[in-house]
Amino acid sequence: MAQRPGRSLPPMTSLPVFDAVGRHMSIVKAANELCLTAGAVSRQIQNLEAFLGCELFERVHRRIAFTPAGEVYWTKIHASLDTIRGVTSDLAVGIERRPLVIGSPRVFLQKCIMPALGTLYARNPDIVVKFVTGAQDIDSVDGTIHVGEAIDRKGVLCEILGDADLTPVCSPSYLRRAPKLETPDDLEHHTLLRSAEFTRNWERWLGPRSPRIFAHARFIDMESSGLEPTAAVEGLGIAIVRQRLVKRELAEGQLIALFEKNMVHEHYFFLFAEPKLRSHSFRSFRTWLRDAVAE
After folding, report:
1. Domain limits, the chain
2. Which of 134, 219, 244, 247 is deepest in the core (most CB within 10 A)?
3. What is the CATH number of domain 100-163+267-294?
4. In this structure, which long-range contacts are made by residues 284-291, counting pairs with CB atoms below 8 Å and at least 24 apart in sequence?
5. How far apart (Å, rounded) are the C-alpha atoms in residues 195 and 72?
6. How many CB atoms lie within 10 A of CB 221?
7. How far is 285 from 280, CA to CA, in rounded Å?
8. Whole-angstrom Cα distance, residue 4 to residue 41?
9. Distance (Å, rounded) from C-alpha 10 to C-alpha 19?
10. Would you place residue 295 in the very low, low, confident or very high pLDDT band (cuts 50, 70, 90)?
11. pLDDT in tens, 189-243
């Protein structure tokens, strides 16, 4: 076989195609297995033959057959790919045994994931998951729950989990004793609950009103995000929340949603690198997460 000067390795994408054609002795069957068109398979074989400088298959009575060189080459390539598949499978088993690391906003973890977490382990007794809170870079975790707007990044899948609508809430007791509250502009006369994360949410909901409201309203600041809904239930002021996170409190009348016509519509997303789907544990977690958030 002739080799092109300066190159010792063939086009690597052609090798699995060549292996499949050799196993099936059929362009069409190989194309079906690889989810390619027959034309794409034929071009890969032609590219490989051009690199090697010889034909690998010949047509015999409307069927294909190995040439002598093609049969020798296929035997070696098939064995090598089998070795690669075996090594990859062994490595994947090791990866399956390590914990999945999942990033999540603290309040979402507390309100949406923890109440349903028992069902994850009931479905998947051997799964191990470690949750981390706060902003997480997608490269440092197996997946992360993101709130806001969709992220478009090459190689990263961004799947909608559910609504994350922003709305102010307060307790009935606060509303009874508070100053007039007929429009969002009246918030400048009220007590607002905030943390660093919830300050951004207030800015998102208030929009152009933010500077004036922030200049005149009284604030109770929380060091840790997630305490605002509890403080609101206790009647300490008005919190800005993701409506999904206080469904129970709203249903039970502990909180009242304000200015629902001004609700800011956003979503929770699950972000992960596409290769994570090779992991059975990750796929199981992803399916469970979508079911749990949908309930």
Report:
1. 14-97, 100-163+267-294, 166-262
2. 244
3. 3.40.190.10
4. 284/123, 284/124, 284/127, 285/100, 285/102, 285/120, 285/124, 285/127, 285/129, 285/143, 286/143, 286/159, 288/119, 288/120, 288/123, 288/124, 289/113, 289/161, 290/159, 290/161
5. 69
6. 12
7. 9
8. 22
9. 13
10. low
11. 999 999 877 788 999 999 999 999 999 999 999 887 788 999 999 999 999 999 9
For residue 45, what are its two tokens?
A: 């074989």
**Domain at 14-97: CATH architecture:** Orthogonal Bundle (1.10)
Query: Residue 17 has which token pair?
Result: 């195609």
CA distance 276 to 270: 12
Rounded Cα–Cα distance for residues 277 and 171 (Å)? 44
pLDDT tens for 104-124 read 998 899 999 999 999 999 999
Q: Report d(CA 141, CA 144) in Å as an integer.
A: 7
